[in-house]
């Protein structure tokens, strides 16, 4: 690479039909052959669906609510993004290979691209899904500020790319549906962002049960506090302000932007809403999976 700019804003490259960052595609063999350990916990999401939020909650659970322990490092070091590879940086796979067990592993991969070792080892997995309209709005802002993505174009253009699955990590529809199906055969806790917004304590208790952890109520309340949007937005260990401005420009849009449900109403025109809803009905007609687009 001649310069940092050569790394950024490049077109996506398909791996088995799924558009990914070119740098992930280039290093794909190391992702595919990644060796999961039986006590790994995988946190899987489509981008902009509450990944950092649930990662922080789980890290706090693993540390029995000790917020100081969770401040030991930035979130992307505590919960490495497995498939991420950027030239000149330690890849997610390398970070994970050097980590002691039990590891927390983050992925945005659709089920068909997940390394087979996770299925073979029957690892526990947490999947968080968020309604499509809020995801596309959040993703549009993220594309603007996180420059490993190609240029997003206009809102109208980006919405079209999202609907046709021509964004990083592919189709939202396939992603949420395929993970939903997988939960029937594997140890997957499938959570909804909207449920987490509505009653975070209830969802933390679901996580505790799934992880077979028993924590007293005062510790659960501490986890609730430290994983709140307000606290995480101010916490440099979770808000991604430690990433260089060349890579993530928070002046364009902060990484932790609003953290609400229903912001799509401020962005969709009436015509866009109508087109999107018709397309959505068609794409989701073959599943029992249901989303709330506001709470």
From TrEMBL:
<feature type="domain" description="Sulfotransferase">
    <location>
        <begin position="38"/>
        <end position="287"/>
    </location>
</feature>
<dbReference type="GO" id="GO:0004062">
    <property type="term" value="F:aryl sulfotransferase activity"/>
</dbReference>
<dbReference type="Pfam" id="PF00685">
    <property type="entry name" value="Sulfotransfer_1"/>
</dbReference>
<dbReference type="InterPro" id="IPR027417">
    <property type="entry name" value="P-loop_NTPase"/>
</dbReference>
<protein>
    <recommendedName>
        <fullName>Sulfotransferase</fullName>
        <ecNumber>2.8.2.-</ecNumber>
    </recommendedName>
</protein>
<keyword id="KW-0808">Transferase</keyword>
<dbReference type="InterPro" id="IPR000863">
    <property type="entry name" value="Sulfotransferase_dom"/>
</dbReference>
<dbReference type="GO" id="GO:0005737">
    <property type="term" value="C:cytoplasm"/>
</dbReference>
<comment type="similarity">
    <text>Belongs to the sulfotransferase 1 family.</text>
</comment>
<dbReference type="GO" id="GO:0000103">
    <property type="term" value="P:sulfate assimilation"/>
</dbReference>
<keyword id="KW-0963">Cytoplasm</keyword>
<dbReference type="GO" id="GO:0051923">
    <property type="term" value="P:sulfation"/>
</dbReference>
